[in-house]
Amino acid sequence: MKNRNKNINIPNGLSILRILLIIPFVYYFMRNELVPAGIVLILSGLSDMLDGMIARKFNQFTELGQMLDPLSDKLTQGAVAVCLAIEQPVLIPLLGIFVLKEVLMVVAACLLIKKKKRPTGSRWYGKVATVLFYISFAVIVAMKIWNMENLTVTIVLLSITAAFMIYAFIQYFKIYLSILHSDDPKDAIDFNEVMDKKAFRK
Questions:
Q1: pTM beyond cutoff 0.70
Q2: What is the C-alpha to C-alpha distance for residues 178 and 196, in angstroms, rounded to an integer?
Q3: Each residue's pLDDT tens digit, 178-189
């Protein structure tokens, strides 16, 4: 059988593409070229949707992919948040909550891996928090572009988004604690076994 690195697949390629798309997004946004910046962000969102669909349909799940997918999401969201916060200082508090949440989640995931435990995947509340994050930024920027800025709408959107981010973090933190103290084999990562399987496939 021909040797083949299973990490080289379409879903992982799309995750890497999503990371690369951050560069043109930041470039266009900082030059106030919002249309091409928006197009790049849409392409990024489509790649995020497609990599999951392709991975499920063709069973192209890999350990690398499970790390690349959330990493590309967090980097993209972080880039969008920073760019919009620079443009709209009112968004800085929400950016602070977002950054704190993501940093703490990365630290928790690293701790689990160090303990040879498997970090949890995305949950519905995490996805909802992400959607609200994008909607809030999109509405606030759109109101600015169309000269329809409304402080009440801005405060409501930011409050709802921040509240859901905090809720999502609390739920993830409970899961991390559960996995950290779990003795269930499904929550463990056996790195030696993974290496043996890779060697066997070669």
A1: no
A2: 28
A3: 988 888 777 776
Q: State the distance between the two ends of the chain, measured CA to CA, in whole angstroms.
A: 9
pLDDT digits (tens, 9 = 90+) for 125-167: 877 887 787 788 778 777 877 888 787 888 888 889 889 888 9
- The answer for residues whose C-beta is within 8 angstroms of residue 53's C-beta and 6 or more apart is none
Residue keyed to tokens 């499970």: 66
pLDDT tens-digit readout, 21-62: 999 999 998 998 878 888 898 888 888 888 778 877 777 777
179 neighbors 112 (Cβ within 8 angstroms): yes
Burial level of 56, CB count in 10 A (0-12/13-18/19+)?
Answer: exposed
pLDDT of 200 over the 50 cut: no
163-178 CB burial, b ≥16 within 10 A, e <16: ebbeebbebbeeebee
DSSP letters spanning 83-118: HHHHH-GGGHHHHHHHHHHHHHHHHHHHHHHHTTBP
Per-domain residue ranges of the chain: 1-87, 90-202
- How far, in Å, CA of 85 to CA of 94, rounded? 9
Q: How many CB atoms lie within 10 A of CB 106?
A: 14
